[in-house]
Amino acid sequence: MTANADSENQVPWKNIWARLYPAAFSLLLALLISGLLLLVSGRDPIAAYKGLLSGAFGTGNRFTETLVKMTPFLILAISVSVSFRCGVWNIGAEGQLILGAIASTWAALTFGALPLGFLAPLTIIAAIIGGAIWSGIAGALKAYFNANEVITTSMLNFIAVYFLAYLVNGPLMDPEGFNFPQSPLIRESLELPRLLQGGRLNIAFIVALLLVAGALFYWRSAQGFRTEIVGASRRVARHVGLNVKSNIILVTVISGGIAGIAGWGEIFGIHLRLIEAISVGMGSLAVVVALLGELHPIGMAVSAFLFAALVVGGNAMERNAGVPFALVDVIQGIIILLILARSFIFRGRPS
Amino acid sequence: MNIDLITVAFVTGVLAASVRLATPILLTAVGEVFTERAGILNLGLEGTMLMGALGGFLGAYWTGNLWIGVLAAMVTGVIFGLLMGFISITVKANQVVAGLGITILGSGLSTLMFRLAFGLRSTPPTLDIFPTVPIPLLSDLPGLGPVLFEHNALVYLALILVPIAALLLYRTHFGLAIRAVGESPDAADTRGVNVSLTRYLSVIIGGALAGLGGGYLVLGSLGLFWTQMTAGRGFIAIAVVVFSKWDPVRALLGALVFGFASALQISLQTLRVPIASELLLMLPYIVTILVLISVSRRAEFPGAFVVPYYRGGEK
User: How many Å is the maximal CA-CA distance in chain B?
Assistant: First the structure.
């Protein structure tokens, strides 16, 4: 369970099955409950889930599309897990992704004349800084003013959405875009190389996997250990001489920087320009993916893949079986509650 | 910018709109005051409000009776309050994660049920909202009349609720029990207070009022339902509760601050102030952050806030 993920994650995955089984149980039970919901409202759950499965895995192209969707989910889950394991309930991944997307697109458009060797790294750095500042605001407000980070990051999400809308309808609007709310295209040489012919799968997926490796390394580093001590108990952390405030700010900045990279990947790998709908639903997905993966990098990679399949399949399900995509959001909510209730269900008593 | 438009009527209009826009926040925040006083943080209010909005819409749309809509909104809220109660009181799980789960579930489930009930339509189904009922004599008061006494029934209900909630919290045995289980559940238990039951009742009150707060958006304000229509008001209500120092009367003040920020934002747009509408729309959210940081540092949270209660030996 998430509340004590700190201690459990000290042990590497010795018994993978024992760790996977409760998560799989939560997922299956959530699908079952959602299926019952469909049945009660007069829809055919079998047809819906068939549509979902074939939508996610039906063809090779569908499968790569699932990997495309998995990329931001995984990056954002790693982002929030850093905060969560420090006991900072940062739900602002969506806003941080938006700021990363804004900053990197702005850099690409403003410094477009620079040689590619400078410009490409510059766009990533801009994305990291954009996301880190947005998240760091919430971190600093928590550290210095004790402001509840769930509320501040949620408010910052709304502010980011409106800021993005303002930019693509105003200062960053494409002058030749017939008044569409979008920025000009980034220059072609900045587009992230595709990994496969035909699909949209690109280098950002590799970046996501590198971040998994980076996260595994982080949790074995001294700073990762400090993060977990602060997360386990503020009192103990102070007792052993850790600066709780600066650790809180540091983890939020790290989280935001990682979320900014997700924004960079979406712009330079997929959309190639700033648009309003770059982040829809990703904030809550990041939380669910992270929690279902027990905040462990490998676990989150597995759950990011599952949720990407759910989202890609859910879209197909809406098109083919006429079942609203919102079913996927319901499944997400049920999964979180099941994860929490799991110990209760399994042992018949509170954990 | 058109300065000539700023007249007395305009200012009273903005203030009256502040009261209306404060109402859903006020209802939700007063409920959450009870929940938090009992030691539970319900971060699922956003989802609870959305479910209340949906329940209110379906109830009123299908029966043609707005009061049944009100009832349905509150019952839906109670169900979600019970869900929060089960996870935080009985399962004793992490309340922050539980709240996030309930918010995600509520936003998904309200959208799904609305779509299953009405499908995709080019024109959304609508209903007539509660009519404005000016209170005789009082509404004729210069200035104050139109601001406070020209609203619909739900706004009056929310305003009357404030003193009732304060009485319940400070002057009754039940109120004392709520404050006791939030401050020191051990001591309350020793004195014969049923900690779990009291906490359950407090999340039920919170759920009912959050449901009503969401229902107000549909039944008292807009007359229709749409996905994510609460737009963060559940989280804003929680910020208002911190601002209120867990006091219903101060919650009214906090809700009015938010209502005023929203009303100001709308009126600045009608005045054609040379600021982009997208930037003006940020105003309520920025105000919420500012309000939160202005009070959080010295806020004294209830003693057993977010701490599950285990009886001696149980664990």
Answer: 71
Best residue of A90, A336, A343, A345 to probe chain B, by most B CBs closer than 10 Å: A336
Q: Is A196 helix (H, G, I), strand (E, B) or coil?
A: coil
B249-295 pLDDT per residue, tens: 999 999 999 999 999 999 888 888 888 888 999 999 999 999 888 88
Any idea where the domains of chain B sit in the sequence?
Answer: 33-123+151-231, 232-299
Cross-chain Cβ contact B97/A291 below 8 Å: yes
The verdict on B269 touching A (C-beta cutoff 8 Å) is no
Tell me what ipTM this predicted complex has.
Answer: 0.88
User: Domains plus CATH for chain A?
Assistant: 2-7+23-347 (1.10.3470)
- CA dist B64 → A31, A138, B59, B124 (Å): 35, 45, 8, 16
Contact A114, A125 (CB under 8 A): no
pTM of the model: 0.89
- To the nearest whole Å, the CA of A151 is away from the closest chain B CA by 6
Axis crossing angle, helix A60-84 with helix A203-218, rounded to the nearest 10: 30
Cβ of A158 within 8 Å of Cβ of B279? The answer is no
Q: Which residue of B has its CA nearest to A349?
A: B91
The answer to whether A130 touches A263, Cβ cutoff 8 Å, is yes
β-pair partners for B151: B133
Rounded Cα–Cα distance for residues B64 and A241 (Å): 64
